[in-house]
Each structure stands twice: as structure tokens, then as C-alpha cells.
Amino acid sequence: MGMWGWLSQNWFNLLSSIGVIGSLWFTAISIRSGTKTWQISNLLAITANHREVWTVFLNDKELGRVRDATADTSQQPITDAERVFVGLVIQHINSVYCAMNDHLVIQVEGLRRDIAQFFSLPIPREIWEKIKVFQNGDFVAFVESCRNWKQPVGSIYFPPGFAAR
To answer: CA 70 to CA 122: how far, in whole Å?
Structure first.
């Protein structure tokens, strides 16, 4: 009977199988493309939230000490406005962390460095130490790993307080 005989009897099954495999392949490509679009959309939303949080900082002169590497909280205690602002930043970081863990956004390069720099500042560091007990353990471990992050040799480093107002 040979291959041509088998093909003449099973052409419909073969064609159906090729159609099913092709549609599965097309579906996989569509899902992958949709996932990338979804991740970029989520990243844009996170960027908008980041801008919103830091606009509060830029518009409120009382918050200038938050980014001051020389702020002395023993001489001038942390204000309620500073505490609320740093809390908002921590909530934002937590949202980004959760989204990245669930692969809802494209990985944000430099995030660890940014977190390490922020929590190296006196006011954010002090507030973090007080409120980290209220955070999820995996998020606390992430932030602590960022705080312990070491600058790779040969990369650009902006010292704490570099962008202070």
C-alpha cells in the first residue's frame, strides 16, 4: 500500500492535525504577544504611579530632608509628612516588587540600586526600620537584599544624597 495509499485514505486526518497544530502555534504566538503588550502597559502604569508619588516630593518643600544624606533625625525628628511620604514610596516599591514577582511587568533594571540608594538615606532608613515589621516577609527580604547590594566594579555609582534638593 505504501505512503501514497496511506495518504489517500488519511489525508483528511492529516490535514486536520496540521490545522490543529497550526492553530495552537498561532494561539501561543498571540498569547506571547499579548503578554508583552500587557507587561508594557503595566510598566507604563507603574511609571505613572512613580511620577505621581515623586510629584508630591517635588511640590512639598517640607519633604526636602527625605533625600538629604546629612539629615540628623536626633536634632530634628521626622515629621508626619516625611513619614507619610516614605510610606507611599514603600507601598509603591512593594507594588512593583509584587508585579515583578508575578511577571506582570518587564524587569526594571537598576531597581535594586535605586532601592539601596533610597534606603541609605537617614530618614527613609529610620522609617523602614520601624515599619518593616508590618510588611510581608518576602518583601522585607527583598528590600534588605537591596540594602545589602554591592555596586559592581566598573559601573556608575551615584553616592547617597547625590540627587538631594
So the answer is: 7
Q: What is the spatial distance between Cα 111 and Cα 146, in angstroms, rounded to a whole number? A: 9
Summarize pLDDT for 67-99 with one digit per residue, the tens. Answer: 999 999 999 999 999 999 999 999 999 999 999
Per-residue b or e along 99-130, where b marks 16 or more CB atoms closer than 10 Å to that residue's CB: bbeeebbeebeeebbebbbbbebbbbebbbee
Instruction: Find out whether 121 and 68 touch, Cβ atoms under 8 Å.
Output: yes
Nearest partner of 124 among 94, 98, 85, 95, judged by Cα: 85
The 3 state secondary structure assigned to 66-82 is: HHCCCCCCCCCCCCHHH
